[in-house]
Amino acid sequence: MNKKHDALFDDVLKGLDTDPGEVEAERGQTRFLKRSTAMSEQVAGARQEKVMRLVDPATCVMWAGHNRAYDLLTPDNCADLIEGLKAQGQQEFPAIVRRLDGDGAEFEVICGARRHFAVSWLRANNYPQFRYLIEERVLTDEEAFRLADIENRDREDISDYERARDYARAVDAYYGGKQTLMADRLQVSPGFLSRFLQLARLEPEIVAAFPGIRDIKELHARQLRPLMAEAEAHSRVIAAARAIAESGEGLTAAEVVNRLKAAGKPPVRRKALDTYYKHPDGNVRLCKKGAVVALEFQQALSERALRSAVDAYLKDRKAK
């Protein structure tokens, strides 16, 4: 008989030969011991109680340091979550929030913007029974930043550019501009962090050239940044970005990158097809049109200047 069965039989048989008063006293003592043990574990830090509650999402606002652009959330890009909530009948994983003081919203959302949007949308679209599941925490801003980053780092539904902006804000706000310290706290490589900070520094004109910030990838910054090292190339790329944004052509992100890369490359210098023979009396232009060579000059050009040009041409041809 295994332990599960032993426990079952013990539960069924206990008390058959015991006085009812003794049984009740034993139960009371057991409950007291359990409460005492739980309290001791909490004091010692070996036990953490998590309090979760269901609230109206209208009582919550996004934390100012939230890493997701809430205004870009739509029923389309949250469709998977909305359908999942409908299938489950409730929100399975709580959002992490902090309590706010004063009037107005009661909580600010650290993690769970998409869940907030999805529940709000469902309540506004014939599913009023849905409520927002939250877990209240006491966190510093730096702790809130790291928690949100850990939760969203591997998710595809948050864009590279949103994450890059969050990192750029945090490196100054929480780490005194020290990238190495921030990388250590986030447990990422300095190179990984540096690439995202470079993305955050993309010029506004380039950002505006893309269909939206969710389309901008960290790879795009790596591709464009080397082409903009020289001042002239930088100017050409910015001009091309402005033209794309103003044209409203509706280019894809890949098409935008290709145009900007083309603008950043130095223009191909065409080989001069014409040669000028200069003389104090006037110049002679030698034009090549396929296999035909023509000398062009003013009708009044002196014979001396013309002979000089012909001699120079014959000399050049012989040298070739």
Automatic annotation (TrEMBL):
Molecular-function annotations in GO: DNA binding
Domain ParB-like N-terminal: 53-153
GO biological process assignments: chromosome segregation
Record's GO cellular component terms: chromosome
InterPro entries in UniProt: Chromosome_partition/occlusion, ParB/RepB/Spo0J, ParB/Sulfiredoxin_sf, ParB_N, RepB_N, SoPB_HTH
Transmembrane segments: none
Any matching Pfam family: SoPB_HTH
Superkingdom assignment: Bacteria
Family: Belongs to the ParB family.
Annotated NCBIfam families: parB_part
Record protein name field: Chromosome partitioning protein, ParB family
Organism name: Loktanella fryxellensis
